[in-house]
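Onboarding guide, step 5: your first structure request.
Type a short instruction followed by the sequence, for example:

Predict the 3D structure of this protein.
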Amino acid sequence: MDRTAIRPKAKQKLAGPWVMILGFALIVVFGTLLLKLPVAARDGTTITWEDAFFTATSATTVTGLAVRNTANDFSFVGQIFILLLLQVGGVGFIAFSVLLYRIIGRRITLQTRFLVQQSLGTQEASGVVQLALYVLAITLGLEATGALLLWLRWRTTLGDAEAAWQA
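The system replies with structure tokens like these:
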């Protein structure tokens, strides 16, 4: 008997598009589970599995659709979960994974660099990690600027804390 015939096949890595599809699916599932936690709903409100799934999907894909009133049905914690899903979906979980790799000090593999290249739609493979970090920095900078401007506009009518949250 040939020994190579009984050896298990080497693990095959997923192609880039499949990694992105599965990544988004996992984020939606994780978001659904977070939104189903009792702490995510306001007192006296029950979030169904369908509503949690739809909200997580809508937030991750940044469509802006909602089947529940976010301000009335979700608690502060639930709104934070939705905000995080919007951030990860808006900038892209691949770009966030680059940031996470940098924070924990891991090297970014060639396969991850190709995923970043595909998710950002660039032709050049060189400099994609720096580009992903640049995209994150610009996005967060613009969001912070917008939040500051909204806070300045609303703080006299809503108060500092509420204006900061709404901004």
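Each response can be followed by summary notes, for example: Residues 92-167 form one domain.
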